[in-house]
Each structure stands twice: as structure tokens, then as C-alpha cells.
Amino acid sequence: MNEKKFKEIATKLKHEALAQCGIFPFAKVVQETPINAEDNGHETKNVILTEIGMGVEYSPDDFLRFDNGNIMQNHLISQLSIVLDSIAILAFKSTPLKAIPVHLSPFIGNPSILPNEHHREIHLDINGVPSIVATANMNSVLCQVISNYMEKTSVPYFDNNGYYFGLGSVKLLRSLKCDPNIRKPQDYLSKGDVFYNDEVGESGSIRWSEITHTHHLSNHMGARGAFGEGIVFGDNGIIVWEVKPVELRIIDDKLVAWCGLIACGLAPNATVIHITSAEEAAHD
């Protein structure tokens, strides 16, 4: 494919595909109704699943075989990855535990989250609504405060080496990556351990991966929008319900799309920490 043709297809995808092709809404749990526990002690829930999908116009030659150099196939795969990540992130962020890093503010929240010697503390809201504005970013001490809380509340570790896992936006991890106490992956991973995409290091018994897509985790939280957003979880974070696996389908003679029927929500008794902030009040 010559460069001119490549640019023509890229422009068509960017400006026309979304307008011409049907796009289903993101799948998410829109109703979660607890039912009486069964005799075996497992909680059951009703979950409503939503169909998701995205399509582009194509010619028969574009999809005769898989080709990771094919711009249309790459476009679909990329969008699928973004949508599935969004579904998972929304489930994580539905946690009632909202952790807010602050500088020297009065402590209100769970008594196991305490101020630290670096003049920062974690304010914890447990009702799902952040009540104050973040005024600090994460450091290694605050990471340890969060992991200590999770250990005290018996949250199972993410892996077999005694670590929890964190997902952080670029701004959330920017200061943490400059912290002298953060360890690089080669300092804590052994042969056979799993290294995750965009994993940047470990701090306070939390392994961190950087999330660059701002639709997932914001870079503009807290005072003056200067701080980032993150999530910390253990082994029991979220559950995926999959009724119709995501697959590539030819809808008609000119449209191909991926679609599926899935949902994602917090696992029963999950403890997930959402590092966030209340919205800053507008000033005249």
C-alpha cells in the first residue's frame, strides 16, 4: 500500500467510520441487586449486561486474513482494548473507598489511616463520595499507609510475593517515580514472575503500572487540577461476566465489527482503594 492510499484510509477511519457505523454503548453493570445468600455461603447477584461493539467499513480484501499491518484491523483491535480497559476501570472506581492525599489537613476517616512524618496524609471516605479536595500527590510513605490498611483489613495480596497492585495516571506516578524509595522492576521480580504492561516499579508493597489513557484515569484531579488518579487492589478486585465473548463479525457486505455481551463489577467483599479527589469549588 503506497503512502497516499494509507493516508486516505487513515483519514476515512478517523472522520467517517464513527459517523457511518453503529456504536453500541460501553458494557457496564447497570443494576446490581443482592439476593439472599445460598446455603454454601456464596452471595449471588442479578447483573444486567449490555452489548458493546464498534465497526468500520471494509472491502473483502481487508479481512481475508489477520494482518497486524492492516490499518482497519489495527483500528478495531485498538478500540476494543480501550473499551475493555474502560469497563474494568469503571468497575474498580465504583468502590466505596475513596482515598484522598492531602497536605496537613485535619484527619477525618478511618482511624487506621494516619498522618505521616512527611507532612502528608490519606483522608479516607467510605461512602463512595470523596468529600475533600486532594492537595498532594502520592509518595512512598502514602503507598505504605494504603498497603498497611489493606493488610489490616485482610485483603488478599495480588501475587504470591506479598504485593498489592496499583494503576496510576501519569501525574499520579510522576512524583512517585522520583521518590528515592521506589524500586525498579528488576529489583523485586525474580525469574518466572509476571511483568505487567507499563509496570514502573514498587513502593510500599504496591506494584504500579502507568495508565496513559486519560479517559481511564484522570491527570487533572484535586487543587488546580494538578494531581492524578489511581486504583489499588488485591487478588479479589473485580469480576467479569461474559455471556457472549467478544468476536469479529461481518455485519453486512460493507461493515465489519467486533461485538460482545459482557459486564464487569466489584467482586463480593472486594476492597479496592480509589485514589481521587472531590471537585474543587469554582472561583469567581
What does this structure look like?
This protein is 23% helix and 27% strand. It has 284 residues and is of the alpha+beta class. The strands form 3 sheets. The chain has a 7-stranded mixed sheet. Strands 3-11-10 form a 3-stranded antiparallel sheet. The chain folds into 2 domains: 3-92 and 239-266, no CATH class; 95-238 and 271-275, hypothetical protein PF0899 fold.
- Per CATH, what is the topology of the largest domain? hypothetical protein PF0899 fold
The CATH architecture of the largest domain would be 2-Layer Sandwich
The tally of helices reads 5
Shape: globular
End-to-end CA span: 55 Å
What is the radius of gyration computed over CA atoms, rounded to a whole number of angstroms?
A: 22 Å
- Main β sheet profile: 7 strands, mixed
Integer average pLDDT: 75
Structural class: alpha+beta
Helix content: 10-25%
Helix-strand string: HEEEHEEHEHHEEEEEE
* DSSP strand tally: 12
Low-confidence stretches: 13-40, 105-118
Strand order of the largest sheet: 5-4-12-9-6-8-7
The proportion of strand residues reads: 25-35%
CATH class categorisation of the largest domain:
Alpha Beta
Structural domain count = 2
Walk me through the topology.
Blueprint: H1 3-20, E1 32-34, E2 45-47, E3 50-57, H2 71-93, E4 97-103, E5 120-125, H3 140-152, E6 164-169, H4 170-177, H5 185-188, E7 199-203, E8 206-211, E9 230-233, E10 238-250, E11 255-266, E12 273-275
Parallel strand pairs: 4-12, 6-8
Antiparallel strand pairs: 1-2, 3-11, 4-5, 6-9, 7-8, 9-12, 10-11
